Amino acid sequence: MHFSDEVPRVAIFVSRQEHCLVDLLWRTRAGELPMTVPLVISNHPQLQATAESFGAAFVHLPVSAATKAEVEAEQLRLLADHGIELVVLAKYMQVLSGEFLERFDAAGRPGGSGASGHGVINIHHSFLPAFQGAQPYHRAWERGVKLIGATAHYVTEELDAGPIIEQATVHVSHRDEVEDLIRKGRDTERLALARALRLHLRRQVMVYRGRTAVFD
User: Fold this and answer.
1) Domain 122-216 superfamily per CATH
2) Which end of the chain has fewer CB atoms < 10 Å from its terminal CB, N or C?
C-alpha cells in the first residue's frame, strides 16, 4: 500500500555518456516523471555541470577493481544520507556487486520495496536476451541484424539478467555502420528507460518468479 501523492527520491548513476541522464532530468523537470533527483553519482567528472544545472548534487567516485568495495560503501552512505528510494543506472557502465544490492535492499528505503528487492533499474543497449555484456552494438553489426533495441530491467546479481520492464527497438540495414547503430540506439535507450521508470514510479510493475507483469 502506498500513498498516491508520494514523490520518490531517485539517484542516477552515470559514466561519461549524457543522453539518458539529460533525458531523465528534463522529463523530471517537465513533470513527466513523478520523482525528484537530489543525487547523481558518476565514476567520471564530465557530467557535473549537467547534473548541477538541474539542481542535483554531483559526486565523483572513480572506480577500480582495487577500490570497488570502498566506493560501493561510500555510494550506500550517500544514498542513505539523501533518503534515496530508487537507483537508476543511466549508462553507468559498471557492474554493481551482489553485496551492494543486498545492503541497499536491506536498508529499508523510505517507500521502497523492502525485502522484495528491485530497487535498481538499468538500461542495457541491447534487445535482451541477445548480446548481453559489453559492446552489443558491435556484435549486432557483425551478425548483420536488422533490428536493434534497448532493454530496461531490474538489476540482479546476474549480469543483464534481471526482470525486464520495457524494451524499445529500431530497424537497421546493411548500409548502417557500427556508429549508425550506436546513434540510433541512443534513441531507443532514452525511450525504454523513461517508459520503464514511469511504469515503476506509478507502481504498474509486478515481479513474480523473475518475470514482470506490466499494467500499462
Assistant:
1) Formyl transferase, N-terminal domain (3.40.50.170)
2) N
DSSP state of 97: P
From the candidates 23, 105, 160, 176, which is the catalytic residue? Answer: 160
Q: Which pLDDT tens digit goes with each residue over 147-161?
A: 888 999 999 988 878
Cα–Cα nearest to 164, from 104, 210, 117: 210
Q: Let me know if the fold of 7-117 is the same as that of 122-216.
A: yes
3-state secondary structure of 105: helix
23 annotated active-site: no
CATH (residue range 7-117): 3.40.50.170
- The model's pTM is 0.89
* pLDDT, tens digit, 9 for 90 and up, residues 73-104: 999 999 999 999 999 999 998 999 999 999 99
DSSP character string of 22-91: HHHHHHHHTTSS--EEEEEEESSSTTHHHHHHTT-EEEE----TTTHHHHHHHHHHHHHHTT--EEEESS
Query: Residue 151 is which amino acid?
Result: T
Q: Are 191 and 144 in contact (CB under 8 A)?
A: no
Sign of CA dihedral 131, 132, 137, 142: negative
Q: Residues in the chain with pLDDT < 50?
A: 110-116
